[in-house]
Amino acid sequence: xSAAAAKLSQFGVKHVARGIGRLSTEVxxxxxxxxxxxxxxxxxxxxxxxxxxTNLGHCHPAVTKAAQAQxxxxxxxxxxxxxxxxxxxxxxxxIPLMPHKSLDTFFFWxxxxxxxxxxxxxxRHATKKQNVIVMQGSYHGRTxxxxxxxRSKTVYGENFAPLMPGVFAVPFPYCKQCSVAAHSDGKFGFxxxxxxxxxxxxxxxxxxxxxxxxxxIFIETVLGEGGYVPPPAGYLARVREICDKNGIxxxxxxxxxxxxxxxKLFAIEHWGVRPDILVMAxxxxxxxxxxxxxxxxxxxxxQKPGSMGGTYSGNAVSCAAAVAxxxxxxxxxxxxxxxxRGEELKxxxxxxxxxxxxxxxxxxxxxxxxxxxxxxVPGKGYASKIQAKCMEKDMLLLATSIYDTLRFIPxxxxxxxxxxxGCRIIREAIEEVAAExxxxxxxxxx
Length: 446
Description:
By secondary structure, the protein is of the alpha/beta class. The chain has helices at residues 3-15, 49-52, 61-71, 85-94, 112-127, 144-149, 179-182, 196-207, 235-246, 297-300, 316-331, 334-354, 382-392, 416-437; strands at residues 28-32, 35-38, 43-46, 105-109, 131-135, 167-170, 214-220, 249-253, 277-280, 291-295, 362-368, 371-376, 395-396, 398-400, 405-408. The protein has a seven-stranded mixed β-sheet with strand order 4-10-9-8-7-5-6, sandwiched between helices. Strands 1-2-3-13 form a four-stranded mixed β-sheet.
């Protein structure tokens, strides 16, 4: 880092809120495609995508052009004053792409947390019930309402109580950390889930929050901050059945796993289950602040005019960018790239899991598309060590979960060449961490 860059970084450390955790004290200056460049000229391969936001890479030309054009026409068309064209164009573009035809009425806000709270408001108002159920390990946001729903790490809610009441938690089917599967001698696992989380959900509705008091069940379709954990086959369908039986709304939080991240536009398409409310954000506008919920018209129309809104909600520039994002998805065959590059990255991670020199470090490799995780054997801090090695090799990579886990979130349009470079760095980082602690001894059998 240059002297000028160091001075700027030190200024940030001194004057920016300490409560913000960050990967590094580098100062970013520009971004293009899969790379960001710091003020000192250091070029970094970005496998974080701003935590799943710049899904089409930094400064995607078509998205940038659309935003620039909209800035010159209308920046702020306040949603409570009138309709504005980009907002309606975005709704028109999204309707045929929804995972179920019943999802036809939209409300756009700014952040994922706000969208989750909008879903809470809709669920409570439509059902006239208060309580909501969330999954252990889930992340729904940092606002006072969503803090009560976030169950991935205690740091988010520590010393901020009292939080929103009426929130209950049940286990998510995290099969690699399931005590039933661990003691089943291989009988149960991801390919043959014991479905104990379904039993725990049914018990919760008998013990703690009666169906008559329960408005909604909120599920990250693929667990995000909790470890990039896809649910096993059949689980979401069972939750849907419980919701239908008890008059409870099913809310799919796809803030992180949606918008192509798993290889389908929305992750819930992998399981063919209908949500009552779908929450989206992050990659929806490739870096411009925008989030939203979609539900069926009969539920959305129950809310009185004035009960929803927000100063910047559905900003015109953000909506114009979001329309360009969807066009790019179609024109550039983004989902095809996600699945192809995802297989390449997963192959690299699985090779490390099988390599005699590194397999002792790796507990699990999992994920869909370009939402992949490498969970390390606990107790040695392997994830943070690998992350640090990647940073030394000019690649940004994030850890996640209370378990020792790395999450891989490269741009969805990452090129084959950039993916190969990323895989090389990851492979070298894992091997170097293993070498520094000494390879495990292996015995030859004659």
